[in-house]
């Protein structure tokens, strides 16, 4: 067993995120098109290092770029769900959410032939129905929540939280492989504007990767077989200066005793009873 695991994840939003944002004039659309330029660069970069990864692909992207999606799958990477047109499921009725989920499963299956194991919510926001819907479809994992940094855990249903207090619900078979905004390239690097807000981004990627390396070092020092899950977007990370920093970071962290795994592989370990991310010593895991 390695000292820890790293999950490299890529959210291949392409044009779908601009559909969701309602920004469909030619220039925002072209920002989505750039994702398709970046994907082959990323696949080559990963192949050169013999690294596996997980790609969260909206159904809209699968239908827009079927050959690229097949190339991702054919090179041994995992393909997983990310909505149909990058819809925020937190605002949907259960009926609409079920329909979008089934259409997105159908799109990925039709285009890649891959067996779909997991889900990542667009904008990382779930509805109260999401965990039940994913369990009903036999999916293994979600990767959208933030209840831990290094330890996957079981998703619950029926939590009740309000001003009077907290009542924990019931754990389900669905495994959560948690994420964080601090481990996402988009808020660090991407400049976004809309009528209501501006995300400045455009930070030095070396600074972002230095933070992520410290998170990894802390994980290896303090936990047994922790999991560091980082999130990239091809349209963000796929530019020259960022790709060179990504390559440097991958080569540096490869010097540690870590293995690169897909999110489904990590979720399978947890489902099979392996505890990942337990604090070293006798401390409680949560
Ligand atoms: Zn996304």
UniProtKB/TrEMBL annotation:
PROSITE patterns: NODB. One of its GO terms (biological process) is carbohydrate metabolic process. Pfam families: Polysacc_deac_1. Residues 4-286 form the NodB homology domain. GO terms for molecular function: hydrolase activity, acting on carbon-nitrogen (but not peptide) bonds. This is NodB homology domain-containing protein. It comes from Nocardiopsis ansamitocini.
